[in-house]
Amino acid sequence: MQQFIPQNPDFEQMIVEKMKENHFLNHLGFKTSSIQAGLIEGSLKIEEYHKQQVGFLHGGVTATLVDLVAGYACFTLVQKEQLVVTAEMKISYLNPGLGSIAYCKGYVIKAGQKLYFAEAEIFTENNNNLTLIAKGSGTYMVM
Description:
Order of helices and strands: HHEEHEEEE
Distance between the termini: 25 Å
CATH class: Alpha Beta
Number of helices: 3
Largest sheet: 6 strands, antiparallel
């Protein structure tokens, strides 16, 4: 993974504060485990309300996790007064989301002046086995 230099030396605290303000992230129960320049990792304890009718992690929840970790990975690199918004996103669902925990990793692959490109991977843990259930990519606009 490429090494990035954040424009805000207090980017970790900024991310923590921004995540506290994100009502949907908090409603889902996402917890961050690592905040680095250009990288966010975290997890979600999968509850019944996160699942679709067959019992898999819902695709909308999975897409939200992709957007959260990829977007916040971009946020680690911007200036304090700047915002990051999703311009476009693609997700590939690779396996059913079975398990009790979803592990999420988002990382920047290119940081431009106005557009950042990021990817994310979502894994679930089921019976001590990790399965890659989705991979996503997105373009994020710096405002």
